[in-house]
Amino acid sequence: MSGLVNQVALITAATSKIGYGYAKHLLQKGVKVALCDVNLEDCQSVAKEFDNTFGDGSTLALECAVANQTQLENAFISCINRFGRLDIVVNNTADMELDVSIDDRDEMNDAIMRVHYGGVVSGTLLAIKYLGAPNGGKGGTVVQTTCCGSATNNVVGYTKVIGDVRSSHHLNIRTMALCPRNVSDNVGGALIYILEKGSSGQYWTVENEETPRLMTWYAAATSTKYSLYFCQPPPRATTARNRRLTHCAAKAHGGT
Fold first, then answer.
1. Distance in angstroms between the alpha carbons of the first and the last residue of the chain
2. Radius of gyration from C-alpha coordinates of the chain
3. Long-range contacts (CB closer than 8 Å, 24 or more residues apart) made by 19-24
4. pLDDT averages per 10-residue partition of the chain, 256 residues
5. What whole-number distance in Å separates Cα of residue 39 and Cα of residue 124?
6. pTM
7. For residues 126 and 142, what is the distance between their CA atoms, to the nearest angstrom?
8. Residue 15 and residue 97: Cα distance in Å, rounded?
9. Are strands 213-221 and 203-206 parallel, antiparallel or unpaired?
10. SS3 content of the chain, % helix, strand, coil (to 5)
């Protein structure tokens, strides 16, 4: 029997293709799910479909725009009031639609960061508020999902900081990021995979029907600055070179 049975999850953008896949696979594992989406009618329709398949009371439909702090917090409160607990928060902004009428580049970038990054941060802070041990919570897991190029680096970096071992231990919250490279039913299976096998601070990707891949921090450097990237583990043949680059980067910033 899965260790996820009887847990409760909250998913944003739950009627999107990726959010739907997450919800379906969680429900298959015996998890109750709060479906949060800006379109309440669509959310209720999906909730009815899932309840017909997995049993009445398996889901809760909630109207929620991730950029609306009040709506987002109300979703957390409603979920806990309905199910009596909350164990998993999925801050999903992966295939969220933005206002296509925005034609100013700077305005579009602001909208992307407000939704794809700001929504993740807001959801994480609320998870800490309601699940975090310092606030009397019982702990849990937070998974961030975004595929928006300009926001992904920020989301992954934020996950790395919040998911740090010391932070995770203090909060009793495991925080991970999952980036689907494309949309398929396998993204839901990937979520289950990292929930069962992942550790805090990790960044995973999934593509097509493949097993999720863990991405690893390594350092790269130029003559003037030090940059960190997420990538697959470097091949053995380049490991020594990466170490030299890391050493040079540290020296460039006053290290040894």
1. 51
2. 19
3. 19/90, 19/92, 19/94, 19/95, 20/46, 21/183, 21/184, 21/185, 21/186, 21/187, 21/188, 21/191, 22/90, 22/92, 22/145, 22/187, 22/188, 22/191, 23/50, 23/59, 23/188, 24/50, 24/185, 24/188
4. 89 94 98 96 97 97 92 97 98 64 54 71 96 97 80 84 94 95 90 97 92 74 38 42 37 38
5. 22
6. 0.81
7. 10
8. 12
9. antiparallel
10. 50, 20, 30
CA dist 124 and 129 (Å) reads 9
Q: Do 130 and 76 contact (CB within 8 A), yes or no?
A: yes
Buried (b) or exposed (e) across 119-135, using 16+ Cβ within 10 A?
bbbbbbebbbebbbeee
Whole-angstrom Cα distance, residue 7 to residue 195? 12
Residue with the two structure tokens 């902004």: 93
Backbone angles phi and psi of 205, in degrees to 5: -125, 160
Q: How far apart are CA 91 and CA 211, in angstroms?
A: 21
Contacts of 128 (CB under 8 A, 6+ apart): 135, 171, 173
